[in-house]
Design brief:
CATH topology of the largest domain: Creatine Amidinohydrolase
Bound molecules: glycine, manganese (II) ion
Helix content: 25-40%
Strand content: 15-25%
Shape: globular
CATH architecture of the largest domain: Alpha-Beta Complex
Largest sheet: 6 strands, mixed
Strand order of the largest sheet: 4-3-2-1-5-6
Structural class: alpha+beta
Length: about 425
């Protein structure tokens, strides 16, 4: 790891210390305890699904897999990290990396699951609902103070240079996976083998991915959150959609690429190229002061142009938007905030913390903010052939080219997704 990254991390921790100190004073608390969370076993079993630490805990320590641990923050005091480290011969003992950030904390290794020592007027945040009633009571603090939580989310929306560097590295690692996935597709492998090629090249085990990779061949590319991996290769290769990420020091990449296969009609390859162009145009429109809702609406206008240019819609682009045709081809939002969570916090709020829900006409939009420097967002336009969404259009008199649409249906759909940071002067694309 480079010295530069370590120095950026120390600056990041100093920034959090200042920001938390001010927030605790503002909200009338003298300390805040943040619980890491812990995995819960499946019902009547002793195995648990993969665990991810609470975002506000990771914000400080960058460790995504730490359980049963606490971080206590007090204004003008060194952060106290109570790290669960049982004497346990079944597992590798908890240890911290030999990195400079560790020196910024007072570390307490705890052999038992503890409740941390709290000051008189403390707040507690995290997944504490599963504690016994007596443990919850022993915390003797204000649990989950809503206004403070909104403010902590708001703080996470703006990434420090350290966080941007981590997101950039997560992107670089993910892209090596995407290249391997494309190569595996060219070798006629199936979904599971593409997934395994992705994991191997991006150097991660499946339990560490920031979200379940979406690897859809052919019509599966049109299932927005396709959740299986077929074991064998299909007979025809129309298309491949890979929406797959990587964590780096807690921070997530979320990248999508779509490829035309040898059995696809030529127009599908042209549409993939057009969606790359659409993504680039939208990335270039990212800048401070831009409304993400307006950018989402711009996506629909540009998508309408593509439908008309490629003869899927025989009316005007304006009509395609006005009649909801583009929404049937792209039912999801243009993107979302990205950070320690793939769908990061505070996307649907105003800066003062009041709700800013998605517009009724675009209910799936996860980000309604005006873009500001330091925000990291995804830009992910899509174009899909989803029978369920196209059925109402088929029953209408709208001038769609059904012959062409039906020819494209076995290709499933297209999504192209990059991760970008809003800068003072515009945008930096983190996706190589
Ligand atoms: N990978 C989930 C998303 O793109 O939002
Ligand atoms: Mn995304
Ligand atoms: Mn994605």
């Amino acid at each position: 790891m480079s010295t530069n990254l370590f120095n950026l991390q120390l600056d990041h921790i100093a920034h959090l210390q200042r920001a938390y100190s001010a927030l605790l004073v503002d909200h009338g608390f003298d300390s805040l305890a943040i619980y890491s969370g812990h995995a819960s076993v499946h019902f009547a079993d002793d195995h648990a699904p993969p665990f991810q630490a609470y975002g506000h805990f990771m914000h400080w320590v960058g460790l995504a897999d730490v359980e049963h641990s606490w971080l206590v923050i007090q204004p003008e005091q060194r952060p106290q990290l109570y790290l669960y480290a049982p004497a346990d011969f079944w597992h590798l003992p908890t240890h911290l990396p030999d990195e400079p950030w560790v020196e910024a904390f007072d570390i307490h290794f705890c052999h038992e699951k503890i409740a941390p020592p709290l000051t008189a007027n403390a707040a507690v945040v995290g997944d504490i609902e599963q504690f016994t009633a007596s443990t919850q009571k022993s915390l003797n603090a204000t649990c989950q103070p809503e206004r403070l939580l909104v403010a902590l989310d708001e703080l996470r929306l703006y990434k420090t240079p350290y966080e941007v560097a981590c997101l950039g590295e997560a992107n670089r690692l993910a892209i090596t996976g995407h290249q391997a996935a494309q190569a595996a597709f060219n070798e006629s492998t199936g979904e599971l083998d593409i997934q395994l090629a992705y994991l191997a090249a991006s150097r991660q085990r499946e339990s560490a991915v920031p979200y379940q990779n979406i690897i859809g061949l052919n019509e599966h590319a049109g299932v927005l959150h396709y959740q299986h991996y077929d074991l064998s290769a299909p007979r025809h290769r129309y298309s491949l959609l890979v929406d797959a990420g990587r964590r780096f020091r807690g921070y997530c990449a979320d990248i999508t690429r779509t490829y035309a296969g040898p059995d696809a009609p030529a127009v599908f390859g042209e549409l993939v190229d057009a969606l790359h162009g659409l993504k680039d145009e939208l990335v270039n429109a990212v800048a401070p002061g831009v409304s993400f809702v307006a950018l989402h609406e711009k996506m629909h206008r540009l998508l309408a142009d593509i439908l008309v240019t490629h003869n899927l819609f025989k009316g005007s682009a304006e009509q395609a938007v006005a009649e909801g045709v583009t929404r049937a081809f792209c039912p999801h939002g243009l993107g979302h905030s990205l950070g320690l969570q793939v769908h990061d916090v505070a996307g649907l709020r105003h800066p003062d913390g009041t709700p800013a829900p998605a517009p009724e006409s675009h209910p799936a939009l996860r980000l309604t903010r005006t873009l500001r420097p330091g925000m990291v967002v995804t830009i992910e336009p899509g174009l899909y052939f989803i029978a369920m969404l196209l059925a109402p259009l088929r029953d209408s008199t709208l001038p769609l080219n059904w012959e062409r649409i039906d020819q494209l249906a076995p290709c499933g759909g297209i999504r192209i997704e990059d991760n970008v940071v809003v800068t003072e002067s515009g945008v930096d694309n983190l996706t190589p």
